[in-house]
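debug: dumping io for the single-chain case to check the tokenizer round-trip. Nothing else runs in this session.
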Amino acid sequence: MSLNQLEWIDLPRFEDARGILTSLDVVPFEVRNAFFLHSVLSERGGHAHRRTGQLIVPVAGSFRVHASDGCDSADYALLDSCRALHVPPMHWLRLHDFTASAVCLVLTDSPHDDADYLRDWDEFVALRRAERTAR
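debug: decoded output
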């Protein structure tokens, strides 16, 4: 899985005099877990998931997502609450540069499972290298 598999998803936005409603009906998977981050003082993430895909939504404020497939890296600015980042499994993420008001909603396609986490960078890179070699 390479970085070109990360994709922006535009969330439907309905605006009128009462305000804005943003729909999540375009989430590309069945949501099995949801959580949100707020009051982040430095950074979050610093890991990858073996099997879990995620949709990262900047509900309020802004932040950046640094993603790596073990070979290449890219930085994504999450600035608009109607634009989410879809991240398939096996991508190392580091969320950083949170504004004071930032709220990050994360929807996942599987329930939380500690065994799904890769927290060691060298182990992650070795697994990705083995994947590429096996192809």
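debug: round-trip ok. The longest helix spans residues 121-134.
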